[in-house]
Structures are given as structure tokens and as C-alpha cells.
Write a structure and sequence with these properties.
By secondary structure, this protein is mainly α. It is 60% helix and 3% strand. Strand 2 and strand 3 form a beta hairpin. It is globular, with a radius of gyration of 26 Å.
Length: 600
């Protein structure tokens, strides 16, 4: 889509905007129309620090739309991140603290028996049983976002949906905590309580996950590139895509700071009991819910959009029925003498087509999630086959978020800006491909570690055999230090920065404004498919076959990354045009669907 405007179009853009049916924030104030804002002044949204740039003598250029030549010639930078986005990030941090704090203990909780010692185990279902139930939990947590997305986009909006599902989540955490008390476990309440808890928790986290990621990006309101100046006087382009990328880097950083709950919960599991770790997670979740409630007046909250999701499926059906991607457009139907009372316009069809492009890319993600899932189950079991030297086997998971916490600022503050300054493109499809390849390296590393476990005594290819049991009756694993596993977790973490963060960003920027939660749920659904594939691999979870499973995943992840690049690298060239659709939807009164925006 061409961003250049002729004189008539520019005059239309400069006309005062009618905010009577514009989106409103929770305070009731209309959200500013950013096609008009900033054309005569530096501040482009209602936040005075949105651009942060002023250049005396050049004020007449601030906020102008760049030409195609300027887009290529000028350096692209992002806006400062809106303060409300950080508040949403805190809520996500608390929820992820809870999720990983309990989920990271499930392997030991399910696998090992209740033997009277604190934290050794609870349900005694073995390696396959633990991985199977853990994988089901992951599958369930990433199917339920579809329900949360439909409720948010069509009925309640993102904020209310998150708040209500927080209540569901709290009920599940209470059940998990109470049934993990030693007396409850001794009386057989463990398995039933665990299954009930993970179903309820999965429902709660699903309703939150599909909405919190788009909610944080909703706090940023610019929808088009504009020209600005740095304090040094350099003409630059403020690019919303870069800001959205930065928002999701912060979002993912908050996720992984939260996941450091695994620095505390394994020791609480070992020294006090599983129930204490689950109680800590519950308290942290209550803190996050409190922040969500008291931050309501600060957030930009967009209301639900009516029947937009069902309309989208109708659009897709018409495309399939007529074997024509334009068949659902009212203009096309008018030409062929078809339906004339469609509740959408041509622009909405273009938005749905853009969302389908993102969904095509997402179809390859399940392979990545199979790789990723190993860090919370099979890597934990692998660590248990090594000499721990006093380190709990499920503590090693923390090197995944530590890697992310270290490398996200490095990439966001140094690497990405340097690439932009040197005009070296690093578009989304390339980042996703690199993420798959780094994930492949993680599996290769895990396979090498597994090989060294098998060639080490005292048990060799039968880790945790009776020969490894110490004087306290605890199996110590083969003679390879648990710290050797660090590299696998670090590589998984680095791969997430490229594959997972970019996936979140892609889901938001390619989704129609009225379907942000739903497309986010489609992205999260790929995690569920990955969990289903992991479940199918369950029969391979025995020694020494697990070594070859790691090798197979290494090859699969590399080939899938290569396939993504071959099939979709051409989309990098149309990135700006696809992202510009939101601008036209927000700014052009002739393109709005009455059924979607009439309530604003």
C-alpha cells in the first residue's frame, strides 16, 4: 500500500477529526487520531514523551508522512514505550511467576513417589507418566486461549476477560496447594486434586494469555510512520513496527523475570514441601491481580467488537467457496450480482487476508514448540541423571530465562539499533528462521550431553541404577556434572528471543484491529499442537532411545526453519504495506465497518 499522498489526500488527512465514534480509553477520553496528530507539533499522541524529539527550525517537518524514498534513505527508530505498557508487563510478570513456579515442579511432583521425605515426589507415576501429564497441561493451556479470545473480541473486551479469568486461575491454584499438603497426599487426594487443578489453571491461563499480549501493544497508539528529528538534528522516521518490537521485547523480558520463580520453588519443594512452593505462586498471582485492578484507570482499554470473529470465518468461507481471495469483498459480490447486504467492507476482507498470512507462517511453529517443551520435562529428567552436587535437578531450568534476561537488552539496545544504523535489514521471517536454527543447536547440545551421560559411570546407559545410590538411599546419577547442561538451556532461551518474541509481534501486527486476541490465540494454538506431537513422542522416552529423539528434533527444527525462509521470505518485502492496513482502518471513515465501531 502506497504511503505517498497527493495534495487532495493530504488535505483530507489534515481535516479535523470527528471523535464521536472513535475508540475511547477507560477514562472516557477519545483516543487521538494519529493520522492528524503531530502534523503541526512534535507530540503525536496524548503522551508528551511519545516522540521525545524536538528540532528548532524544523518544526514544520515534524509528523509529516515519509515518501517511499525517505523510508529507504532515513534511519528508522522507535518511540519511547508508553508507561501503561510497563504496568501490563508487571501483571504478566506475576502471572508467569505463578505459571512457571508451579509447572516447573510438575515433573518431580508426578514422577517421583511420596516416600516420606520432603520434596522428593508425590504421585509416583514415573518418567512417562510425568511427561504425559505435563504435556497434557501444556496442550490444555494453549487450547483454551481460543475461548478467551472469542470472549474478549466479541463480548467483554480484553481487560474484563483477563480479570474474570484471574478468578478462575486463583481457584485452580487453591486446589493445587491444598491437595499438595502432606496429609492430603497421604490420604490419596493428590492425583484427583492435581488433575482438577491443572484443568482449572489451564482454563484461567488461557483466558489471560490470549489477551495480555495484545493488551500491552494496545497501550501504544501510533499506526503510521512519520518524520521526526533526533536531538542532534538528524532526520529520522518514527516507525511503529520498531516500537511494537520493543514492546514485545519488554513483554518477553517480564515473562522471563517472572519465570525466575524457579530459583526459589525447587528449594521450597525440597526443604519444606510442594505445597509451600504452590502457596508462594498463589500469593504472587494475587499481587498481580491487585495491580491489574488498581491499574484500570491507566490502561488504554478497547471495547469488544461484536460479531467480528464469526464475520471473519464467513469471509474465509466465501474465499474457499469461490476459490478467490477477493470473493468476500462487497465490491466483488456487487460485480457478480451476489450478496449485497454483507456486514463488512472491502478493507475488512484485506485485513482477514493479512491475518491468514500470519496463520500460514504459524503452521510451522509446532515443531519449534516440541523443541522448546523439552526444557521443562526431558531436560529436568536428564539433569536428574547427572551428579547434582547439591543442586536440585529442576533448578537448572532457570538458565533459560537467565539467557533471555541477558540477551534481550543486548539485542534491543545494541544489536538491532546497530543493524538499523548500518541499514542491514533483519525482518521478521529472518528472525523466526534464526530462532528455529538456534533451537536446533539446543537439541544437538542436549544429544551430546546425553551421550556423555551414557559413557559415564557408574550406571552408563542405565542411569540411576542401584550402583549410584548413596548412603542416604538417594540415586546420584552418573559422573557428569549437572552444570554441563547449562548450554542447552541457554540456547533454548536465545532461540525464544528470535522465534517466540517475533511470533508474538507478528500475531499482533498482522491481526485486524478487531481480532488481535483471536489471532494471538491462533498463534498460541500452535503450542498446543506442539504438545500433541510431544505426546506422540512419549514412547521414545526411555534410555537410550531419548538420545535419538534429541537428534531427530535437532534435524527437524533446522529443516523447518529453512522451509519457513524458502516459503515466506518474500513477505519481508511487503512488511510495511501489511502493517499499514491498521492506519487506514483507524483513519479513513469510508473504510470502517459500522457493525464493528459503532459502539465506540
Amino acid at each position: 500500500m502506497d504511503h505517498e499522498l497527493n495534495a487532495a489526500q493530504l488535505h483530507q488527512e489534515l481535516e479535523p477529526a470527528d471523535h464521536s465514534n472513535k475508540e475511547k480509553d477507560v477514562l472516557g477520553a477519545p483516543l487521538q487520531d494519529e493520522s492528524n496528530a503531530g502534523l503541526k507539533e512534535v507530540c503525536i499522541t496524548d503522551e508528551k514523551d511519545t516522540t521525545g524529539f524536538q528540532s528548532p527550525g524544523h518544526e514544520h517537518e515534524e509528523g509529516e508522512l515519509p515518501t517511499e524514498e525517505e523510508k529507504r534513505a532515513l534511519r528508522h527508530i522507535g518511540d519511547p514505550l508508553p508507561k501503561a505498557a510497563f504496568l501490563v508487563a508487571i501483571v504478566e510478570l506475576c502471572e508467569r511467576f505463578t505459571y512457571y513456579g508451579v509447572q516447573g515442579l510438575f515433573q518431580n511432583y508426578i514422577q517421583r513417589p511420596l516416600d516420606g521425605s520432603q520434596g522428593r515426589g508425590a504421585l509416583g507415576m514415573g518418567h512417562k507418566g510425568a511427561t504425559g501429564l505435563g504435556t497434557f497441561f501444556q496442550f490444555w493451556c494453549y487450547v483454551t486461549p481460543i475461548l478467551g479470545a472469542i470472549i474478549a473480541d466479541q463480548y467483554l473486551g480484553k481487560y474484563k476477560t483477563i480479570l474474570y479469568f484471574c478468578g478462575v486461575y486463583i481457584i485452580g491454584l487453591l486446589i493445587l496447594t491444598l491437595t499438595a499438603i502432606p496429609k492430603a497426599l497421604e490420604n490419596g487426594a493428590g492425583l484427583g486434586g492435581f488433575i482438577a487443578a491443572v484443568i482449572i489453571i489451564g482454563l484461567g491461563t488461557g483466558g489471560i494469555k490470549s489477551n495480555v499480549a495484545p493488551l500491552i501493544a494496545d497501550q501504544y497508539k501510533r499506526r503510521q510512520m512519520v518524520i521526526s528529528h533526533t536531538p542532534e538534528g538528524e532526520r529520522v522516521i518514527l516507525d511503529p513496527a520498531i516500537t511494537i518490537q520493543g514492546i514485545y521485547m519488554i513483554f518477553y523480558l517480564s515473562i522471563n523475570v517472572g519465570s525466575l520463580s524457579l530459583l526459589a520453588t525447587p528449594y521450597m519443594e525440597r526443604d519444606v514441601g510442594f505445597w509451600s512452593a504452590y502457596l508462594l505462586a498463589l500469593c504472587m498471582f494475587l499481587a498481580g491481580t491487585t495491580v491489574l485492578i488498581f491499574g484500570k484507570k491507566i490502561y488504554v482499554v478497547r471495547p469488544p467488537q461484536g460479531s467480528v470473529i464469526t464475520d471473519a470465518f464467513k469471509v474465509i468461507w466465501l474465499m474457499i467457496k469461490h476459490r478467490n481471495s477477493n470473493a468476500a469483498k462487497p465490491s466483488y459480490q456487487q460485480e457478480i450480482g451476489g450478496k449485497t447486504n454483507l456486514p463488512w467492507d472491502d478493507h475488512f476482507v484485506e485485513e482477514v487476508k493479512r491475518a491468514l498470512v500470519a496463520c500460514k507462517v504459524f503452521t510451522f511453529y509446532p515443531i519449534y514448540w516440541v523443541v522448546y517443551a523439552n526444557f521443562s520435562n526431558n531436560f529436568v529428567t536428564q539433569a536428574g541423571q547427572m551428579r547434582g552436587h547439591g543442586i536440585p535437578n529442576d533448578l537448572m531450568q532457570n538458565f533459560d530465562p537467565i539467557a533471555i534476561i541477558v540477551f534481550v537488552p543486548v539485542l534491543d539496545r545494541f544489536v538491532y539499533p546497530l543493524l538499523r544504523k548500518l541499514k542491514i535489514p533483519f525482518p521478521p521471517i529472518n528472525r523466526i528462521t534464526l530462532g528455529f536454527w538456534v533451537g536446533s543447536l539446543a537439541m544437538a547440545y542436549a544429544a551430546i550431553i546425553q551421550h556423555y551421560i551414557y559413557i559415564s559411570g557408574p550406571c552408563y546407559k542405565a542411569p540411576l541404577c542401584p550402583a549410584s545410590v548413596d548412603s542416604a538411599g538417594v540415586a546420584q546419577g552418573n559422573n557428569i556434572h549437572i552444570a554441563a547442561q547449562t548450554g542447552a538451556y541457554m540456547l533454548i532461551g536465545i532461540s525464544e528471543i528470535f522465534a517466540s518474541v517475533t511470533g508474538l509481534e507478528y500475531a499482533y501486527t498482522k491481526a485486524p484491529p478487531s481480532m488481535k486476541s483471536f489471532v494471538q490465540a491462533m498463534y498460541l494454538l500452535t503450542v498446543a499442537f506442539g504438545a500433541a506431537i510431544s505426546e506422540a513422542l512419549n514412547p521414545l522416552l526411555y534410555d537410550p532411545a531419548i538420545l535419538w529423539m534429541f537428534v531427530g528434533l535437532c534435524i527437524a527444527s533446522f529443516l523447518t526453519g529453512a522451509l519457513i525462509w524458502l516459503l515466506f521470505h518474500h513477505l519481508n518485502a511487503t512488511e510495511d504495506q501489511m502493517n499499514a492496513l491498521d492506519k487506514d482502518y483507524d483513519n479513513d471513515e469510508t473504510l470502517k465497518r459500522p457493525s464493528v465501531r459503532e459502539d465506540f
